[in-house]
Amino acid sequence: MASILRVNTLTDASSNNSIATSFVFSGSAKVWADVDMTGTATLDDSFNVSGLTDHGTGSFTITHNSDMGNGNYVYTAGFNNEVSDASAFLKIHSPGDKLAASAQFLKKENGSAVDCSGNYIAIHGDLA
């Protein structure tokens, strides 16, 4: 039998540190992924990711298990920079590639699309 626990605030055992449950819900990453693009693209670890599509060198899409409310969410992306290039980046491939159900990313170093072993993504926003 399922049950529901209804609380407004979470606190530690000493009641010195507390936080509203609404903050936890709104502030927690709704999707995150650690993507390895070397060879066949794989998810090393993830949360709320139902699929990974490799589009070729440096480009991949993660599909969300539970859709976001819309495409107006915020993402943070980082990577394991295996080449010394201060201009390297991992970003949404193009503006139309940030959708409620998925996001396509592009990794570039020295001006060219590249695959690397560690691509790290976190998505924050409202779920549908």
How does this structure look, described?
By secondary structure, the protein is mostly beta strands. The chain has one helix at residues 21-27, and strands spanning 9-11, 18-20, 31-36, 42-47, 49-56, 59-64, 74-79, 89-92, 102-109, 112-113, 119-124. The strands form three sheets. Strands 5, 6, 8, 9 and 10 form a five-stranded antiparallel β-sheet that branches. A four-stranded antiparallel β-sheet has the order 4-3-11-7, with no helix packed on it. A two-stranded antiparallel sheet has the order 1-2. A hairpin with a 5-residue loop joins β3 and β4 (42-47). The two termini are 26 Å apart. The relative contact order is 0.24. The model has no long low-confidence stretch (mean pLDDT 89).
Main β sheet profile: 5 strands, antiparallel
- The ordered string of helix (H) and strand (E) elements is EEHEEEEEEEEE
What's the average pLDDT?
89
Quote the beta fraction: over 45%
The total beta strand count reads 11
Q: What general form does the structure show?
A: elongated
Helix content: under 10%
Poorly predicted runs of 5 or more residues: none
Number of helices: 1
Radius of gyration: 17 Å
Q: Helix- and strand-based class?
A: mainly beta
Distance between the termini: 26 Å
